[in-house]
Amino acid sequence: MTITQLQYVLAVAENKNFTLAAEKCFVTQPTLSMQIQKLEDELGVVLFDRNKKPIALTDIGEEIVTQAKNIVNESNRITDIVEQKKGYIGGKFTIAIIPTVMPTLLPMFLNNFIKKYPKLNLIIVEQNTEEILNNLKNGNIDVAIAATPLEEPDLKERVLYYEPFVVYDGTANENYAKNITPEELKLDHLLLLQDGHCFKNSVLNICQATSLQSDYNFTLQSGSFETLIKLSDEGLGYTLLPYLHTLKLDNKAKENLIEFKNPKPSRAVSLVYHKNGLKLHIIDALHNTIKGIVKGAITFTDVKIISPK
């Protein structure tokens, strides 16, 4: 039994396809299949039901995959320990970021981070919270930047900053004063992001609502704050924005912003990673870089954290 064989088993278990697994492992499909067959012969069990489409694990295969994950992770930890002792920050490192954070936060820290750590091969992907949770648990990503708390027992969270929610009302503030409370929001005029965005869940939690009924005869499914802002400018309601998103608005648009009274409803934006994860020294470097940059942009202290779930 070898670590490589276990890695091949994990790849097939994840992709449910020998050809795709071989591509992900950068080997030919016959090579991967042969090594898995050798492992099955050695163990005297069948790991995969090859007659099913897609390929499925057998009952004993499920148990072995669970153990294989632990073995492969622990073997990787040896390299991780050596790199930490040497202070080496390099190699492949995958970061997932939720869509409502990616456009504002990434440009703030990326250039600084890659210049500071040129030996890192960063892979940055945009994923929603559900995808992030699955990929962290399966070891497909090293760390995520997401709204928290997520209350997942297998994951750790390190807060980067607390970001207030801000009302955007394109009707020249005809409906509200310059500072309001969540209780003053008119729910029938609220424009929201589509389902699947944790930001939508947070807004509903601010309003203490499970769903909204609009006065308008249209249903909107959009993942774009820009779309919501333009609809608000047309008098079709108001929306909520994350504070960092408001910094790039032009001066005219900023006149349509309405802040919440203290304590301001806010989201915690955190680094999230598996409690048994590797590359903690790189996660530390990422944490310190982002905190150092963002602390000058967000200085609010009187906040109320809103759950993204």
Question: Can you walk through the features of this model?
Answer:
The chain has helices at residues 3-15, 18-25, 29-43, 59-86, 102-116, 129-138, 198-206, 225-233, 243-246, 251-254, 280-294; strands spanning 48-49, 56-57, 91-97, 120-126, 143-148, 155-169, 179-180, 190-191, 238-242, 257-260, 264-274, 303-305. The longest helix is centred in the first third of the chain and has 28 residues, at 59-86. The chain is α/β, with parallel strands linked by helices.
Please specify the SSE layout and strand pairing.
Layout: H1 3-15, H2 18-25, H3 29-43, E1 48-49, E2 56-57, H4 59-86, E3 91-97, H5 102-116, E4 120-126, H6 129-138, E5 143-148, E6 155-169, E7 179-180, E8 190-191, H7 198-206, H8 225-233, E9 238-242, H9 243-246, H10 251-254, E10 257-260, E11 264-274, H11 280-294, E12 303-305
Parallel strand pairs: 3-4, 3-5, 7-10, 8-9, 11-12
Antiparallel strand pairs: 1-2, 5-11, 6-9, 6-10, 6-11
Helix pairs in contact: 1-2, 1-3, 1-4, 2-3, 5-11
